[in-house]
Design a protein that fits this description.
Radius of gyration: 25 Å
Number of strands: 6
CATH topology of one domain: SH3 type barrels
Oligomer: single chain
CATH class of one domain: Mainly Beta
Structural class: alpha+beta
Order of helices and strands: HEEEEEEH
Number of helices: 2
Largest sheet: 6 strands, mixed
Pfam families: PRC (PF05239)
Protein name: Photosystem reaction center subunit H
Helix content: 10-25%
Strand order of the largest sheet: 4-3-2-1-6-5
Distance between the termini: 69 Å
Keywords: Signal
Organism: Pseudorhizobium endolithicum
InterPro entries: PRC-brl_dom, PRC_barrel-like_sf
Length: 135
């Protein structure tokens, strides 16, 4: 009976030691925001967000963000043109073309080098044909 008790105690001690072992997984801890301006954004924050052009007017809205397999941003799909959902097209623009600033309790997205006319004349992309979604 002593052997069983010692074995059980050794198992409990080993289990407790294992449970206290530090994590080695790539865990990220982000600092809490200090003030009104966000320091990080979720991609869902961009969905259907209006984008303003060089003249300060709305030029489109974000349809989606296209990522490379390494996690970097390949492009941003902007929905441009059309009226009431008819005649719209998606155009891919570089992430670097966008400027994101904190505004009130949200964000403002601008593309200071783009205009509605430039985007409407750009080649449309069909994300589904690229294997990206079901547009």
């Amino acid at each position: 009976m002593k052997t069983f008790t010692l074995a059980a105690a050794a198992t409990l001690i080993a289990g407790a030691a294992f449970a206290q072992a530090p994590l080695t997984a790539p865990i990220v801890v982000l600092p809490q925001a200090q003030g009104a301006a966000p320091t990080h954004l979720l991609t869902g924050e961009f969905d259907d967000h209006d984008v303003y052009g060089a003249d300060g007017k709305e030029i489109g809205e974000i349809e989606d963000i296209v990522l490379n397999l390494d996690g970097t941003v390949a492009a941003v799909a902007l929905e441009v043109g059309g009226f009431l959902g008819i005649g719209e097209q998606d155009v891919l623009v570089a992430w670097s073309a966008l400027e994101i600033t904190a505004e009130n309790d949200g964000i403002r997205i601008a593309a200071p080098t783009l205009t509605r006319e430039v985007l409407e004349q750009a080649e449309a992309v069909h994300l589904a044909k690229l294997g990206l979604g079901d547009d």
